[in-house]
Amino acid sequence: MNFLCSTVEWSKKGKDSTVKLFENKNIKNLLLPMLILMIATTILITIYTNKQYNELTIILNEKIAEIVGAIKEKYPEVDNDQIIKLLNSDKNSYEFKIGQEELMQYGIDTEQTNSIVSIEEQMKNNMIFNIILVIIFSILWMIIIFIYLRKRDKKINQITSYINEIKNKKYELNIEENSEDELSNLKNGLYKITIMLKEESENSQKDNESIKMSVQDISHQLKTPLTSISIMLDNLKDNPNMDKETRQKFIFEISKQIEWINWLVISLLKLSKLDANVVEFYDEKINVKKLMNEIIKNLEIPIEIKNQKIIVTGDDKISFQGDYKWQQEAVTNIIKNCVEHNKENGKIYINYEENTLFTKIVVRDEGEGISKNDLKYIFERFYKGKNSSENSIGIGLALAKKIIEKDNGMISCKSEIGIGTEFTIKYMK
Fold first, then answer.
1. pTM score, whole prediction
2. 411 exposed, middle or buried (CB, 10 Å; 0-12, 13-18, 19+)?
């Protein structure tokens, strides 16, 4: 039983390997011309053999006709039916044996090639023709193999050359052929990889430039508060008899600057983690009303300072799936941006709704608006528009966009000068 199972398994593996062999495009490319040549050769040999058979049949019939004519001339009394009967009789008949003995007297053996009908020449011609066909077939087959191997070696050399160019960081490759054999597929795959490496190289250069600019921006942003802190500390150090009120003012400003620096560093760390895809987002049901109430509560002070009013509309039961902590930070940055750029005594409108596809949150202010030139850059980190405040570093909106997109959402913005700005957030279901 085990032997039978192993035999069946071996047979199945052999069948699978044979199928894979014939699925190979290179094998197909070789077998096709070979098959065509074999068919052509077989057809030619068949045609020639049939021709030779017909010619030999004609010769035999002519000889038989001569013999019958000679018999009828010498023996006119012989019945035609009797002659036909003799012609159709087998070699075991009495008449055949008598004729065979008579021919033997003249040195003609019907069992040997030296028959009464001379066909030796025709057989020689047939053999020569068949040999020539075999030689032609072999030569053609060798030519096909030579051409195929030459073409394959050319492709291999091309691929080797491309690999060496890639090693030297040269990504200029041209794919002109449309063939579908394995080497061509490998070449096309190499081309795709090269394009990807080229794009990654270009992106890497852009990233390096972006990092360089970011470092410069961060250095610039940190330089001012650090200088301010250094000056105030020097004043406190050099003036031990400074009055209490001034001293408290300096300490407050130092604390404020330190808090600002701390926020900057934390935001940059968050962006770095998001860029590196090391942040794990929790999937939980987030009630939009609860989220908005908590965000507005955390922004009470800046809202009261500018005497603004926030109007929230939406169904209390509306929710979406996401990470509550991260989405709270993202939406907070959006609303905070509207508070900062909204006019005093202005209103901020927040509306949320849902459908079968997504939950939508719209935040709209009555501020000065954003110009078209600035609008397309507002989500880029460290970008500050013309209407940005002195304390703005252009990181809040960038962080919000990154968080929302990482958590299966999307954000867009539209604005009109003198009317206000509107942010639309969609969380897909």
1. 0.50
2. buried
